[in-house]
Amino acid sequence: MAEVDLLPILWIVTGLGLVGLLVWYWRQKKIALLTDPEQIFERPESRLSLSDCEVAYFEFGRGPVLLLLHGLGASHFCWRRLVPLLAKEFRVIVIDLPGFGLSSKDLNISYALEPQTKRLVEFLTQLQLGPVCLVGSSMGGLIGLHLAAQHPQRISGLVVLAPPLNRRLALGLGTKMAWSGTLFRKMLTPLIMKRILTLVYADSRHADPSAIAGYLKPYQVDPKSVTCLLRALECIRHSQPHKWLRSLKVRVLALHGGRDQIVPLAKIQSDLECIPRVRIKVKADIGHHPQEEDPEWVASLITEFVRHPSN
Prior knowledge:
eight-stranded mixed sheet; Rossmann fold
């Protein structure tokens, strides 16, 4: 009986085992990148050239489209705890607004409400999106409301988290952010960012080292970030939402933290109630960023809002 050379077979089995191990490792890595809030934005961003700037964005999941807009001074980072929950059922697009995060920072363009709205329309057009559900945090909610008022055919629904609608509130917010910007120019330190985040969160434990580093990073990478932030205050100061809120035709879900120190509900509730098709939900124990302090609550309400438009 002829002897069988087992060495080639051994090599084949070993090779298949290594391939299987690599496939398993890659799958685990993909799962971690999609489910671990601290890793979800580790993937390379996509970039899109608009008429006067370049924007960075990330995509996750499949299904109805959700477009997430961050607030003043923030970036895609503020959505890190919410995206893994939403991506189970939706195609989630997270954009860095021009002047923020990984997007371009051109000091020769305006970051006021009207031009930022036009850039979002161009973004939707280029990606052939629409109608979409917008989810906007703080200033992002204000921009989303303005876009919905001007282009209702583009929006299937709108979720706003603590939008700064009151003009007097905008002045106060502007003073706080200008103070922060001055300090940023002089000394970019984790201590200053922690001080700001303790205003954003109701529970100061959320202002941990990873949150501080994530919010601080864009300002350390590009010195123009601070100037863009201060110029974007015009988006809030001169928005005059009282002139167009009553004309909104789209459904609006307004989510608010009962301990919000940046945009207290009492300062904007009457403005929110001017919106014809608005539902207001309040969580008593959270602050200005519900998507970070209670992402499960926010995700469940967004899912219900999108899945059951008649409610």
